Amino acid sequence: MERNQWVSSLTALLLCLIFVVASEASDWSILNQGGGKRKLGYSLKNYCESWRMNVEMNNIRDFEIVPGECVDYVGKYMTSTQYKVDVERAFEACRLYLSDAFEPRGDGGDAWVFDIDDTLLSTAPFYKKHQFGGEKLNRTALEGWMKEAKAPAVVHALDLYNEIKNRGLKIFLISCRGESLREATIENLVKVGFTGWKGLEMRGLEDAEKGAQEFKAEQRKMLIKKGYRIWGVVGDQWSTLLGLPSGKRIFKLPNSLYYMA
Ligand SMILES: *[C@@H]1O[C@H](CO)[C@@H](O)[C@H](O)[C@H]1NC(C)=O
After folding, report:
1. pLDDT at 145
2. Most CB atoms closer than 10 Å: which of 83, 126, 191, 231?
């Protein structure tokens, strides 16, 4: 080996080493805020729990991917007993609200709105194969997975769905899934037990440019114009719940896998 070649190989090796050390350091930079001098008195788990909590509170918005250091944490949470208990608690609040406040008019105008993904059907099996939100969403891959119509029901969702239906409320499903997924979506819903909804609103071509929040608020507006009273809206994304007109009550389910604006 010529001397020049040897020197450039050594330089490349050194640069590699510096890069590895620097990226290790930057992985932990969030825990070393304050110039790295102040040791934060909490763990990575504390940090990730706080990240997740602030996603739920809609303080942290528009994240494209789950931060790399929290991927394990989010994956564990979304497949944990705690997640199931949290969802059950939210559904319990729906039940309590209905038994306290629901006054059926008996005119067929009482309505309830559900989102579909991660409210009735779980996308967790898809995200499990994609680093639990730790990699940028590939919409083609997600829609391909949805077309297979094999999403499981969100835990306890079917019980609540049936209870609401049996109270005589008309159920409307408002989803950001595109119309091209209608057949697969119906197949999937029926396969896991969801039947007897009054309306299934999906995004058509004319809605392609609209954000989720705008699209969903428009759909609710149309329901109200037709004379429906929306008693409640359940969703895992704030874009399902915010925007006017709303329901009399909104219920947020946990989801820190992705953010849909
Ligand atoms: C997205 O997913 C599709 C279908 O699985 C695949 O063909 C394509 O290469 C993926 N694109 C990227 C950028 O990974």
Report:
1. 98
2. 231
